[in-house]
Amino acid sequence: MTSSATTPTSGSKLLREPIVFFGSGPVAAESLRLLAQWATIEAVITKPQPSHHREAFPVLMLARELGLQAFTPDNKTELSQLFTSKPVTSRIGVVIDYGFIINQDVIDSFPLGIVNSHFSLLPQWRGADPITFSILSGQRQTGISLMLIVEKMDEGPLLAQTPYELTDEITAPQLTADLIELSDKTLQSILPLYLSGAATPAPQENVTIAANSEASYSRKLTKEDGLLKWNKPAAQLEREVRAFLEWPKSRTIVNGKDVVVTRTHVMDGIGKPGEVWKDGKSFGFYTTDGIFVIDSLKPAGKSEMSAAAFLNGYGKNL
15-207 is classed in which CATH architecture? Predict the structure, then answer.
């Protein structure tokens, strides 16, 4: 296993041996766009477009744009049925942001297996949402793990890891964009080595570069996660705002107005959790530890605005 990544020089495709790409969401679409610039893609496996969606799903739309063969099984059973017909000849698959569990019979269709680019330093944050939970945890480092998938979720052996240092200001959208690029660079470096036999997988706990080799697990978020609760420390709520910026968004009620909080900072202070703190053009709420100061927010039906602008318009009785 290696923990480094390099960027190849431009020119002909770095990876001429064909691969099959599995992916469905926006992260998968951007990953596929980057992958197609340097890899030969035999086929794309993605979710079908539901009848109620007017616009094509991101990966399906991109596959058509790039002239790539695409298959759209609707569930893992249909995926297995597809592969009984041996629709591809590639020795390897790559999966990013697919959304279906891939059965062992499909994995076995590829002599070299299927490589998953997972957006954490495994075994940290196995599961559905490693990016969000990396921010929520307050950890200082995350990264990319290239793993050979097995039937158990995110427990396969590692081919490579590349670290990423988290800042105090990083938001989930920015971290996602940065990790997509880091994933692509890591794949560029490692896939040719793996295909040639020069890179070999190893058990996660034996080779991880994560500071803690204990397994941890993320989960899918719900709308309820976005409700700001003042019985938490201010620092935790500040991380929630950055982690939930795209979804489920951090929501509360200020002076009877539903708002989405978009940027905050933390101050020292002691008060009853949930009580308003106000200082000139700034306001926020006391928590169990510190003051949650709101810098910008978006009232329902309005554009994002500063705390000062909100106070001018809605804060007379705050």
Answer: 3-Layer(aba) Sandwich (3.40)
